[in-house]
Amino acid sequence: LKEKTEDLKRERRLAEDLLHQMLPKSVAKQLRKCQRVEAENYDQVTIFFSDIVGFTSIAASCTPLQVVEMLNNLYVCFDTRIESYDVYKVETIGDAYMVASGLPEKNGIKHADEIAKMSLDLVAAVRQVVIPHMPTGRLELRAGIHTGPCVAGVVGYKMPRYCLFGDTVNTASRMESTSLPQKIHISSATYEALLTDDAYEIELRGEIEVKGKGKMKTYWLLGNKNYSVQN
């Protein structure tokens, strides 16, 4: 009986660990108790989006199984690295990767710094990812970051998802779509949030036309003076 009890506990831990990979612990706890998860408002978070440059062309030149293998290699690399930072992986859609900091657990004013360090790491890491069917090829990342308020909540009953809503999400996505290969494109709001400790190398990009937003003053995040990316 004791052995069976231990086996049951072990299986339960494995199931909980898997659940916590898909939903925040606080949300999973409420769902297990059949409680309604209320949407929560966050005054300040920082959101990161990235995608693979030329992904459509790459995907067109290989089989669906090769696409899956390539993306799996990429996301295993990214997922492993983001564990070093106070961030939450929201979702992946195709080749798009979305990460946030400052939610579901608030972290004061650390969110912009955590996402900035993580983004420098991922842009460096993507060059190390091997494409099995293109051994001489190398992937390139296009990244964008924005800081601002948002609302987070669980939507759906079948396969419930923890989703973020608000203009901050849209603007972060726009920063990514108007970025360039191997560049980290940041908004003025993120730039101002990163000025607090004067640790970052940032270059003014200037005013650009952003769909749905008009002209925006944006910047390139180049590096951190006190921090080197993981080997």
UniProtKB/TrEMBL annotation:
<dbReference type="GO" id="GO:0005525">
    <property type="term" value="F:GTP binding"/>
</dbReference>
<keyword id="KW-0325">Glycoprotein</keyword>
<dbReference type="GO" id="GO:0004383">
    <property type="term" value="F:guanylate cyclase activity"/>
</dbReference>
<comment type="similarity">
    <text>Belongs to the adenylyl cyclase class-4/guanylyl cyclase family.</text>
</comment>
<keyword id="KW-0342">GTP-binding</keyword>
<dbReference type="InterPro" id="IPR029787">
    <property type="entry name" value="Nucleotide_cyclase"/>
</dbReference>
<keyword id="KW-0141">cGMP biosynthesis</keyword>
<dbReference type="InterPro" id="IPR018297">
    <property type="entry name" value="A/G_cyclase_CS"/>
</dbReference>
<protein>
    <recommendedName>
        <fullName>guanylate cyclase</fullName>
        <ecNumber>4.6.1.2</ecNumber>
    </recommendedName>
</protein>
<keyword id="KW-0675">Receptor</keyword>
<keyword id="KW-0547">Nucleotide-binding</keyword>
<dbReference type="GO" id="GO:0035556">
    <property type="term" value="P:intracellular signal transduction"/>
</dbReference>
<dbReference type="InterPro" id="IPR050401">
    <property type="entry name" value="Cyclic_nucleotide_synthase"/>
</dbReference>
<dbReference type="GO" id="GO:0007168">
    <property type="term" value="P:receptor guanylyl cyclase signaling pathway"/>
</dbReference>
<dbReference type="Pfam" id="PF00211">
    <property type="entry name" value="Guanylate_cyc"/>
</dbReference>
<keyword id="KW-0456">Lyase</keyword>
<keyword id="KW-1133">Transmembrane helix</keyword>
<dbReference type="InterPro" id="IPR001054">
    <property type="entry name" value="A/G_cyclase"/>
</dbReference>
<dbReference type="GO" id="GO:0004016">
    <property type="term" value="F:adenylate cyclase activity"/>
</dbReference>
<feature type="domain" description="Guanylate cyclase">
    <location>
        <begin position="46"/>
        <end position="176"/>
    </location>
</feature>
<dbReference type="GO" id="GO:0005886">
    <property type="term" value="C:plasma membrane"/>
</dbReference>
<keyword id="KW-0812">Transmembrane</keyword>
<dbReference type="GO" id="GO:0001653">
    <property type="term" value="F:peptide receptor activity"/>
</dbReference>
<keyword id="KW-0472">Membrane</keyword>
<keyword id="KW-0732">Signal</keyword>
